[in-house]
Design brief:
Layout: E1 2-7, E2 10-12, E3 18-26, E4 33-39, E5 46-52, E6 58-60, E7 68-73, E8 78-83, E9 92-99, H1 105-110, E10 117-118, E11 122-126
Parallel strand pairs: 2-11
Antiparallel strand pairs: 1-3, 3-8, 4-5, 4-9, 5-6, 7-8, 9-10, 9-11
Length: 128
């Protein structure tokens, strides 16, 4: 199975940038999709940016489109989320997620229920 560990969260001022990283270990060759979700207390977990590991199809939530960017380093089994022009509403716990089962299309790739591997989460706080 795949084991995920996030890093890179922290406190940043509005307009600032952060890069989150997700390190994968274990059976990484079975990954079908991987991405980032976020959650604030009292709300459901929502997708931020996800990517099909097979064909590279990438989806971004409308609220982060043009500000957040996914990148991957397959040799190091890393997934990065570059977050620019951060806003207070981006404050949340960010989770890296992966699935080893077939997952394709917008509904599957963006649905948290379709991911069975999760990291422990990293807090991102955007505040002045």
């Amino acid at each position: 199975q795949v084991h995920l560990v996030e890093s890179g969260g922290g406190l940043v001022q509005p307009g600032g940038s952060l890069t989150l990283s997700c390190a994968s270990s274990g059976r990484t060759n079975r990954t079908y999709a991987k991405g980032w979700f976020r959650q604030i207390p009292g709300k459901e977990r929502e997708f931020v940016a996800v990517q099909s590991w097979r064909d590279g199809t990438t989806y971004y939530h409308d609220s982060v489109q043009g500000r957040f960017f996914l990148s991957r380093d397959d040799a190091k089994h890393m997934l990065h989320l570059q977050m620019n022009n951060l806003k207070p509403e981006d404050t949340a716990v960010y989770y890296c997620a992966a699935t080893e089962y077939y997952c394709s299309g917008f509904v599957c790739l963006t649905g948290s229920i379709d991911y069975e591997r999760w990291g422990q989460g990293t807090q991102v706080t955007v505040s002045s």
